[in-house]
Specification:
heterodimer, A: Thiol Ester Dehydrase, Chain A, 6-stranded antiparallel β-sheet, B: alpha+beta, Thiol Ester Dehydrase, Chain A, two-stranded antiparallel ribbon, 26% helix, globular
Chain lengths: 140, 158
């Protein structure tokens, strides 16, 4: 767990669903960005076309999990307790980015906010707020 | 009303078959009636979210619930309208059992002129012992009189 970049890469590589989505994580110092390159299999509505709302929700959930791992270190994958997803704009067939902000981490629960955008950072396409059950490394 | 439901059964079937993500998850609508919609995603190793336990990723449940809630909206309407998800709140009660298909049962309990409200549960064996529960709100006539998908046209930078 010493190198956050290595541990988050290792975590993603082990998760079949992260590979299925095509999710990547980039770290600039301690700032983490999750990247979801567009893929045909992510489309929900082919007539528009638009990325499936569930994919955006799933992507932001994974962003929150990865952020908890990077910033807090986790003995095992945090569990999702609840999420509230706001859909702001349709997801177009473009690369989607997301960043998470950990609002509070207690002994058991973390509160995380995530925002996802595409070509314009100032025009987010979706946001997520969630609670996660955490197991920090030092208590493992 | 039943004509509308018949038409909607055909519509959701076409929607599942035409939606690349629904196909990728092998999602299908098991039933659609005045009570709402029941959908299924079969267990698949490529959808595992926790490699230590083999439990399906929460994201799959999210996508299934979103899809099921959207289809349930159509059962609460009397004519076809375009819809868009405004928000989706999900409580995860327990991990889905590895190896089992996941179902979602969604019911549209209130429709106003502009908004439809939906509740749903995701489960493996018994809807009374849910994996997750969801509450969602959808905008109706989401294209707002403009052409379908007008909101996806290139946005001019301000």
């Amino acid at each position: 767990m010493s190198d956050p970049a290595e541990s988050v890469d290792a975590m993603l590589a082990r998760i079949p669903y992260a590979r299925f989505l095509g999710l990547r994580i980039e770290l600039a110092g301690d700032e983490m960005t999750a990247i979801l390159p567009f893929g045909q299999h992510l489309i929900g509505n082919p007539t528009l076309p638009a990325i499936h709302g569930g994919v955006l929700g799933a992507f932001m959930e994974m962003t929150a999990l990865a952020q908890l791992l990077v910033k807090e270190g986790q003995a095992r994958q945090p569990r999702v307790i609840d999420v509230s997803i706001e859909y702001l704009r349709s997801g177009r067939p473009l690369t989607t980015y997301a960043r998470a902000e950990i609002k509070k981490v207690g002994r058991r629960i973390a509160n995380v906010h995530v925002e996802a955008w595409q070509d314009q950072r100032a025009a987010p396409i979706a946001a997520l707020r969630g609670h996660f059950l955490v197991t920090p490394t030092e208590r493992a | 009303m039943s004509d509308h439901l018949d038409a909607m059964r055909n519509f959701v079937h076409a929607m599942n078959q035409g939606s690349p993500h629904a196909i990728a998850l092998k999602m299908e609508t098991v039933s659609l009636d005045a009570d709402g919609a029941i959908l299924r995603v079969p267990y698949d190793e490529k959808l595992i979210g926790d490699p230590d336990t083999g439990v399906i990723a929460g994201g799959v449940v999210t996508a299934l619930l979103d899809h099921a809630c959207g289809q349930a909206v159509h059962t609460g309407l009397t004519e076809f309208k375009t819809i868009a998800t405004l928000d989706l709140r999900i409580d995860y009660m327990r991990p889905a059992e590895p190896g089992k298909d996941i179902f979602a049962k969604a019911h549209c309990y209130k429709v106003t002129r502009s908004v439809a409200f939906v509740r749903a549960v995701a489960y493996d064996d018994d809807p009374a012992d849910p994996v997750a529960a969801a509450q969602a709100a959808f905008m109706l006539d989401s294209s707002g009189g403009r052409g379908f998908g007008a909101n996806l046209k290139d946005r001019k930078p301000k």
